[in-house]
Amino acid sequence: MKTPLFNIQQLRRFSSFRGLNQEIKISPLAKIRNIGIIAHIDAGKTTTTERMLYYGGLTRSIGNVDDGDTVTDYLSAERERGITIQSASVTLPWNGRSINLIDTPGHADFTFEVIRSLRVLDGVVTILDSVAGVEAQTEKVWKQASDLGIPKLAFLNKMDRDGAGFGRTVKEIVARLGTRVVLVNVPHFKHDSASQGSKFDGVIDVFEKKLLQWEEGDGTDLKVTDISDHSTTPELYEECERCLEAAVETLGEFDEEVVSAFLETEDYMKVPPSVLKAALKRATLESYAVPVLCGSSFKNIGVQPLLDAVVDYLPSPLEMKLPEVTTDFKSIARSKKKQPKKDEVNDNHLAVTIDPVSGLNINNNKNLTTALAFKVLTDPMRGIMVFVRVYSGQLQPNSTLLNTTTGERIKIKKLLLMHADTPREVSKLESGSIGVITGVNSIRTGDTLVSHATKKDVNGLQPRETMVKLHPINIPPPVFSVSLEPVTHGDRRNMETALETVLREDPSLHLSEDDESGQTILSGMGELHLEITKDRLLKDMKVNVDVGDVKVTFKETILRPTNYFTKTVPCEKGGEFKITLSLDSFEGDIKETSFAEEPSFIALNMDNNAILLEESSESEKIRESLKGLEGGEKGWPFAIAYETMIRALVSGVTASLQVGGPIARLPVHSTIVRIKEWEVPLAADNVSPLLTLARQAVLEALASLDPKDTTLMEPQMKVSVYVNDEDLGVVIQDLMGTRKANISGIEETGDEAAGDELRWAKQEAERTYVPQDPTMMYIKSGQAAGKKAVRFNSPLKEMIGYLPKLRSLTKGRGVYDMEFAGMYRIPGDRLQDVLRHDL
C-alpha cells in the first residue's frame, strides 16, 4: 500500500524533512549531540554535511563540492582542490535536537585535524564509499575513534554508483574494522527502463517496516510505503523480516529486553521498534555493535534517516564517556611519594560525575567551569577565534578565565556559535556546548581553561581546581620540511607575522632555523600539508617568500650521557638563581621508559624529550615553603609561583634543545634532561633568570659533546604491502634494495594465519546477514588465499613515490598502507650519505 506524502504534523519521521527552520537555542543536555564526520578522502563527508545543513533548515540551497559553494569547505584552497583541509564546526537543529557537527578532513596529511576534533566529540558518523569499501584512512580514523571509546555509526554512501556494494561493504566493516553491525536500513532499487537495469531510489527502514523512496530533486519529496503486510509487498516484507531477524539475533545476545519482546509473539516483524531502538542505542554506546545506514548524499537520498540515527543512537553529553580529569596540584606539592600502585587511587585525578540537569560535575563542584581549547583560527574581521568544548559549568561573556596550561589569567569577550565561517553571538556556553571564545590571542590548542560559573572569575575555586588538566591533544611529529627565505629583508617581518598565524592555527606545523644558511625551516605532516601551507602564505597572505623543495625531516640525538653543568646568576634582592643539569640518552617512546615512572618526570611537548627533576633537586628553602601546600588555601600563591618556576625550566630546556646538536644543528630528539639542583631566591620578583640559566646549561652540555657521541634520526614508516604470490619476489627485491626495508614478516592472508581477534572478525563477517549483492564476488582480496602481506619498516625518504613503482612491479594489482612508526637512529653506514645528500 502506497501512502501520500506526509507532512510534519502527520508523521514527522517520514515527512518532507523541511520546514524545521527553528532558531538554534540553548538546548537541554539530553537534546544535544556533539558529533563528527570521519572517513577516507572522497567518501562524501562534505557532501553529506551540506545536505544535513539544508534539511536542518540552515541553508536555502544545497552546496556542492564540484561547484565550490560548500558551507563547511569555505577556504579558497578547499574549494579549488575539492577537499577538506581544516575541520569546520556547525550547529543545526533536527527534530527538536541541537546537533553540533564537525566535518573533518579525510586526507592523511591532515590527520591532526581529526585528532583534535575527536577529543571533543561524543559520537562519530563514519562515511564509506560503497564502491571502494573500507579504505586505509577509514581504518585509521575508525581506530582513532575506538581508542577514545567514541560510539560510531556507519553510513554507506554513493549507493547510486556503478559497482556499489552494500553487502560487500558491510562485511568488510565487520571483517576489517572488527565490529558487529545492525542494519538500520538497506538499499532499494527499482527497475530503470532507460538502462534496462536497476536504479537506487531509496531505503527500507528495517525497524519501522517502511519503504522510503525519494523523487529526483532536492530530497524533500518522499514516498512512504508500509511493507508490514506480506500479501501486499511480499518481497519487501521478506527482506525486512530477514534483516529484523539478524537485528534481533545480534541485539538479543546483548540485551534481554529484545529476547523477551521476541518471545511474546515469536514473530520478528512484531518486535516493537522502540525496543529495538533502545537496545541498539545501548549497544552503540557500549561499542558492542554499530548501526549501519546507506544512501547517496549527492543524489539527496538517505540523509534524513541518517540525521534521525544521530539523534536516536549517538550519545548526548549526559551519556558520553566520562573524560579523564587530572590536577597538577599534587605533583607541584611534590611530597616525593612513590607512584601509586595499580589498585590505589591516584590522587592526581579529580572526581567526575554526571548530573542529569547540569551535566558534567568535576571535583563535586557545580560552579567549576572547565573547557578545552581544541582549535584556533584567525578571522580577518573578528580576529583570533578559539574553539572550545565546555565540559562543566558554563562560560559567560566578559569573564576572566585561568589557562591552567600557562598559568595566565585571560579576559574573554564575546561567545559565539559557529555556522562554518559565519558566527552567531550567544549569552553563554553551557556544559556540553561547542562554541567560540573571542578577544584573546594567548590560548593554544590543547589548553585547559577554568573559571567560576557564577562569579565569572577564578576567585572561589580551590587550589586543586586551578590546576585542572583535561585530556591532552597529542600532536603527531612533522616528517617533511621546506625552507623559507624572504625575497628582501623588508619581507621578513611579513613572513614572520604570517608564520605566527599559521602555527597558532595548526600546531602540527613546526618552525626552526638553519644556523648556517639563515633559512627558516617549516615542517609538517606531509607533502600536501606543506603545499597547502605554502599556497596560503603566497596566495592568501601575500607573503613575498621563496619556498624550497619538500624534504624529509631529520633530527639529532645524543648517544651518551654528558657531565653535569652548573650556571648561576645573582639576584638583586639577595641570593642567587642556580641550576645544575646533565643530558642523558635513551631509545623508544619516552613515555614507555623507566624515566616516565619517576614522580618528578615532565614530558616536553615536542621531539620525545623530557625533564627529570632528581630527588631533592629543589633547594632546602623551596622544600620548606612547599610543606603544607596540600592543606588548601594556605600556600596557594606560592603554589602558583612554583608552577611558574617549573614552566620557566620547561621553556628554557625546550628552547635550547630546538637550537640543535653538534652534527647539523638540527633539533635534538629523544633526550632526557636531568636537573640535579635548582634554586630561586624567595625574594625574587620573577623567574626569567631561571629560564635563561636552563637554556645556557643545556647549550653548554650539547656543546661539550663530540660529534661521534651524537647521530641523526629519521622518520620510519610502518608499511604493509599486499601482493599476489607471483609478484612476491620482485617486490621483496625492491624493498630490500631500493627501500632499505627491515622486513618483520611475510604472512599468508587467509584464515589460517589470522590471530584470534582477526579470526573472530572474519567469522562474524561470514555469519552477518546482508541483502543480495552482486558485487560480493569482488570483495577485497587483500584477505584472500593466494595473497601475501609483507610487513616492514622503512625510512620515509625511501617510500616517497612508492605507489607507481609498486603498481609497475605488480601489473597494478599490489596495494599498500603506511603509517608513522617513529623516529629512529640512522645506522652508521648511512649517516655520511644522509649528511652529504639530504641536509
UniProtKB/TrEMBL annotation:
InterPro entries: EFG2, EFG_II, EFG_III, EFG_III/V, EFG_V, EFG_V-like, EFTu-like_2, G_TR_CS
Main subcellular location: mitochondrion
Entry protein name: Ribosome-releasing factor 2, mitochondrial
Lineage top rank: taxon: Eukaryota
Tr-type G domain mapped to chain residues: 30-318
Amino-acid positions noted as binding GTP in the UniProt annotation, renumbered to this chain: 39-46, 103-107, 157-160
Function: Mitochondrial GTPase that mediates the disassembly of ribosomes from messenger RNA at the termination of mitochondrial protein biosynthesis. Not involved in the GTP-dependent ribosomal translocation step during translation elongation.
